[in-house]
């Protein structure tokens, strides 16, 4: 029976009573759906330019925040061309969709597994790194799939970052 | 308007599926390295392969080929690599990619809610201070 905890978010395997409540949707289903929707949004529904912009949590979140600030206080913060008239609402959709799923399956509960200030800083850093790279984890993968060498470089660097980050987590846990 | 509505609907679907599948675009590599669990990694691969197949098909169907970006200069490559590395490293420490953090926040994880607060504040910080500073420093 293995069980492991990664900073507060626990997943267990082998112990059937505590694991995977009703995991009918696998990560592969999600991956395929995300791939189809991301490409279709760009090709048929005007979520472009830039290219390979169908799904991105960082860029679309930036568009929403900056568009709103621009509309309210008449600033000229950067938004992508796809968000000039109305902002892309992917981030809102994901939040509401996940809330609906969690509520429907009784998985909504308030927990605080990590220090809020620490995670605030993580969020701030990830957004800045993602905007420098031109995409969050999803869009870097999407740009790679679109055959963009620069996106592939970013994705490779991200994989290296994950390897180093995981090494650090492991080192800290076994120290 | 079409793009905004589409992105909202796409987000709703991905949020729902993301909550059910616990998908994380960073967690796949992490889980594989830590415990040789390939569940999430398969999702990442499925996403990449699906998009790779769908891009040319969709471009042909829509009649709008993907615009090829020109040769990137060294500074852009450097920034992309540095940014990508940062996304991977910090997301691993933060216990999930931005999509996963949105899902966790919607499940009631308060530290992910503050992550999102930092995330959206980060957009403003980037465009007000970080980007101008980078423009000043870089050639």
Could you characterize the architecture of this molecule?
Chain A is mostly helical and 175 residues long. In chain A, 59% of the residues lie in helices and 6% in strands. Chain A has helices at residues 27-44, 57-73, 90-104, 116-133, 137-145, 149-174; strands at 2-6, 9-13. Chain A has a two-stranded antiparallel sheet. With 139 residues, chain B is mainly α. Chain B contains six helices and no strands. The longest helix of chain B is centred in the last third of the chain and has 28 residues, at 110-137. The mean pLDDT of chain B is 92. The chains are: A mainly alpha (175), B mainly alpha (139).
Any descriptors?
heterodimer, A: 175 residues, mainly alpha, globular, B: mainly alpha, 79% helix
Strand content of chain B: under 5%
Structural class of chain B: mainly alpha
Shape of chain B: globular
**Overall pLDDT of chain B:** 92
Number of helices of chain B: 6
Main interface pair? Answer: A-B, 130 and 110 residues
Task: Give me the secondary-structure category of chain A.
Answer: mainly alpha
**Percent helix among the residues of chain A?**
55-70%
Order of helices and strands of chain A: EEHHHHHH
Q: Please summarize the sheet with the most strands of chain B.
A: none
Quaternary structure annotation = heterodimer
Task: Give, in spatial order, the strands making up the sheet with the most strands of chain A.
Answer: 1-2
What does the main sheet of chain A amount to?
A: 2 strands, antiparallel
């Amino acid at each position: 029976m293995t069980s492991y905890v990664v900073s507060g978010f626990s997943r267990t395997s082998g112990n059937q009573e505590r694991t995977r409540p009703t995991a009918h949707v696998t990560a592969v289903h999600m991956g395929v759906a995300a791939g189809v929707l991301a490409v279709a949004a760009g090709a048929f529904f005007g979520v472009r330019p830039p290219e390979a912009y169908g799904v991105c949590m960082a860029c679309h979140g930036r568009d929403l925040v900056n568009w709103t600030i621009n509309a309210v206080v008449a600033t000229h913060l950067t938004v992508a061309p796809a968000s000039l008239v109305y902002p892309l609402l992917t981030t809102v959709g994901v939040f509401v969709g996940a809330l609906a799923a969690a509520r429907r399956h009784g998985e909504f509960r308030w927990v605080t597994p990590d220090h809020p200030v620490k995670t605030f800083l993580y969020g701030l850093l990830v957004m800045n790194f993602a905007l420098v790279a031109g995409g969050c984890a999803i869009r870097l993968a999407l740009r790679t799939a679109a055959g963009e060498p620069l996106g592939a470089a970013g994705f490779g660097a991200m994989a290296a970052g994950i390897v180093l980050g995981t090494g650090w987590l492991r080192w800290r846990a076994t120290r | 308007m079409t793009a905004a509505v589409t992105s909202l609907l796409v987000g709703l679907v991905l949020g729902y599926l993301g909550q059910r599948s616990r998908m994380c675009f960073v967690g796949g590599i992490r889980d594989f390295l830590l415990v040789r669990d390939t569940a999430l990694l398969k999702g990442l691969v499925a996403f990449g392969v699906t998009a790779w197949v769908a891009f040319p098909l969709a471009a042909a169907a829509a009649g709008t080929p993907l615009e090829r970006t020109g040769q990137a200069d060294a500074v852009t490559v450097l920034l992309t690599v540095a940014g990508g590395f940062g996304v991977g490293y910090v997301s691993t420490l933060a216990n999930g990619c931005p999509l996963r953090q949105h899902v966790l926040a919607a499940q009631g994880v308060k530290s992910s809610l503050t992550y999102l607060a930092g995330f959206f504040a980060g957009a403003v910080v980037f465009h007000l201070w970080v980007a101008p500073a980078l423009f000043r420093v870089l050639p």
